[in-house]
């Protein structure tokens, strides 16, 4: 929903009714991830995508039907279904798409969600998308990690127990609420969307009820150290991938906003001091990636000493030639880093794409980060067999 939220808010604030289809589960080589949304406005316009073009037409028609009836629908599209094949899902994937009517009446929490996303405050939205009792389908609650519902929340808190839990309303029973909140907080912590399956009353080992959780965590962070031309390209690509990008360098003449217009912030500080302060303040999480582009021992050795000892960092890469790499590894061993700690370092940074320019190098760095995140091999897909998406 995040990518279509600006247009959705325009329609919602204007009091218009919108049909919204959201991917809530994917199987095999599905082209779009869980959470991808498509809007159908009152004027007939379509915004967003649930399948990259494969089933948009079918979802478009279903959205019109749902807006007219007011009854949400969970629809599966896959090559095993004659209808899905007819509308073009030939990629071999399967999608579960939840289609609902969105208005100020049906989705009063939307304004609060948009405000939280704008502030960078973590918030999750849990929606019942399937249940044996149709009256449960469409029930929704907000989940906050601090367990606090604002005094001006747009929805009524059902009781003090739910307020303490950080739920904006009950999904039907204490058992359901407890299970969804616990699991929803886990998804929010990881920044992942997902569908949770329970029994009709929230039984952990049961089936029949599905709850989709949109996890709106702050953007993951990319910390780029070294205010050089390569850093500007890495910042540009990192921003494109959805990272909150920080460029840090100790030299104020180089670390300027004008040189890095696509970075979210530019910091003048010794890199190792900045990273240590961010870690101590709790602003490093398992989605944070670090790119060390200084290839200057006085900067990168103290910085890498810090970075390689922070287990939360998902990626630590350092630029430099083979000779620079060997010298850097020797200095890090002298500083007392273990072989396990050194094994976390991606150096020389990036995948072998034959990159020459700063922009090409930035693509190779981004490719390595993406491959590490999803377990990709970095090999050409044409040289591999089996599923494209895991």
Tell me, what's the shape? elongated
Unreliable parts:
148-164
Side-by-side strand order of the widest sheet:
12-11-10-13-14-15
Order of helices and strands: HEEEHEHEHEEHHEEEHEEHEHEHHEH
Question: End-to-end span in angstroms?
Answer: 23 Å
- Level of helix content? 25-40%
CA-based gyration radius: 23 Å
Per DSSP, what share of the residues sits in E-state strands of 2 or more residues? 15-25%
Largest sheet: 6 strands, parallel
Number of E strands:
15
Instruction: Report the total helices.
Output: 12
Domain module count: 2
- In terms of structural class, how would the helical and strand content be classed? alpha/beta
Mean pLDDT over the full residue set:
88
Fold and architecture overview:
With 390 residues, the chain is an alpha/beta fold. The chain has 2 domains: 4-216, no CATH class; 221-374, Rossmann fold. Helices cover 33% and strands 21% of the residues. β13 (289-292), α9 and β14 form a beta-alpha-beta unit. The longest helix is centred in the middle third of the chain and has 17 residues, at 174-190. The chain is elongated and about 65 Å long.
